[in-house]
Amino acid sequence: MHCKNFQDRPFSRREMLRGCAMGFGGVAMRALMAGQAEAKVTHPLAPGIPHFRPKAKNVIFLYMDGGPSQVDTFDHKPLLKKYNGRDPKEVIGKLAPTQFDNVGKILQSPWEFKQRGESGAWVSDLFPHLGGTEVIDELAFVKSMTSRFSEHTFANYFLHTGSGFQGRPSMGAWFGYGLGSENENLPGFVVLNGGLIPPGGLDCFGAGFLPAAYQGSVFLPQAQPIANIQPRFSPEVQKRKLALLRELDLEALPDSEPDPQIEAAIQNYETAFRMQTAVPDLMNLRGEPDSVKKLYGLDADFEQTRTFGLQCLLARRLVERGVRFIELTCPNVGHDRWDQHKKLVDGHNRNCKTVDQPIAGLIKDLKRLGMLEDTLVVWSGEFGRTPFAQGADGRDHNPFGFTLWMAGGGVKGGSVVGETDEWGYKAVRDRYEIHDLHATMLHLLGVNHEKSTFRFSGRDMRLTDVHGHLIKEILG
Amino acid sequence: MRLFPKVLLFSFLLPVCLTASEELEFFEKRIRPVLAEKCYSCHAADAEKLKGGLQLDHLDHLLAGGETGPAIVPGETSGSLLIESIRYENEDLQMPPKEKLSPNIVADFETWINAGAAWPDEPVPQREGRSNDGYFDLQERFREHWSWRPVTNPELPAVSDTDWPRQSVDYFILEGIESLELRPAMEIEPSAWLRRVYLDLTGLPPTPDQLRTFLEDEKPGAEERVVDELLASPHFGEKWARHWMDLVRYAETYGHEFDYPIKHAHEYRDYLIRAFNTDVPYDQLIREHIAGDLIKSPRRNPDEHFNESILGTGFWYFHEATHAPTDVLANEADIMDNQIDVLGKSFLGLTISCARCHDHKFDAISTADYYALTAYLHGSARQEHPIDVHRVREKTRGALEKLKAKGNSMIEEEGHALIADPTAVEDFAEGIIPEGWSTSGFAFAGGGAGPGLRFDEKLPFTVPGTIDSGVYGKKQVGTLRSPTFTITEDHLHLLLRGNSIAVRLIIDNYQMARFNGLLFKGTDQEGIDTKGKFLWLTMSGDLNKYRGHKAYLEIVDDGDGYVILDEIRQSETGKAPPVPDYPEAPILTQPQLAILRKGEALVNALPVPRFAVAMAEGTKEDAKVYVRGSNRSPGEEVPPRFLEALGSGQGDRLALSNQIANSANPLTSRVMVNRIWHHLFGTGIVASVDDFGPMGQAPTHPELLDWLASDFSRNGWSVKGMIRNLVLSSAYRQSSSSHPALSPGYLAEVDPTNEKLSRMPVKRLTGESIRDSILLVSGNLNSKMYGPSVPTHRTAFMTGRGGRESGPLDGGSRRSVYGAVYRNFLSPFMLTFDVPSPFGPKGRRSVSNVPAQALVLMNDPFVIEQSHHWGGRVASKPVSAARKVDEMYLRAIGRSATPSEQEKILAFIEESEGDPGSRWAQVAHVLFNTKEFIFIP
Question: Which of A431, A436, B208, B927 lies at 20 to 30 Å from A227 by C-alpha?
Answer without folding.
Answer: B927
